[in-house]
């Protein structure tokens, strides 16, 4: 085998073969690196996968960042949001290149509704995530409680680092009310994490039902893309396959 043949084979392996582009949008307190295991599986299966790196300072800025990534897609888009990223895709998903939405342990606000309203929605028997009071316009998760709240089913060495490296979440992302809701006009799927201590499973079910989403449940913490990457990838591939 010649060097030219090896190069051609590598290029063919790296070239997407699926007819859908999957765009991944991360949530609050983390960055896009959490998608790596899911990215590796999806690209290995032939998908073009694009990653959004949200500043999570303002909802408007995160929607703009997502739309820039969507513009680079070479195929119809499955737009995926985890946690707060669900609010981002709900606004950005009105882009005509987006054919379907996938929410993973995510917020799916309606028009005139904020993430803050959904996050503070009363759920009997639940105390909510261990967020510290806002400081200079930003919120973080209590670093001591982060590992057991955000991802208790992930290696503690990883979650301790995540707690120390968490990205502050701007009130400008939490408080704005959405002006559009893409799930009202486009098909949606929802992966509900039943052991979630950040976004209540009860609230997740309410949002998924309201959006008339195809609902899949998994016994997982909030960080399902870290603890169950193959299940997440399969969920996304099935959703992508349904796009016409």
From TrEMBL:
It comes from Sphingomonas kyeonggiensis. Residues 22-233 form the AB hydrolase-1 domain. It holds the Pfam family Abhydrolase_6. InterPro entries: AB_hydrolase_1, AB_hydrolase_fold, Sec-Metab_Biosynth_Hydrolase. It comes from the Bacteria. This is Pimeloyl-ACP methyl ester carboxylesterase. PANTHER family: AB HYDROLASE-1 DOMAIN-CONTAINING PROTEIN-RELATED (PTHR37017), ESTERASE_LIPASE_THIOESTERASE DOMAIN-CONTAINING PROTEIN (PTHR37017:SF11).
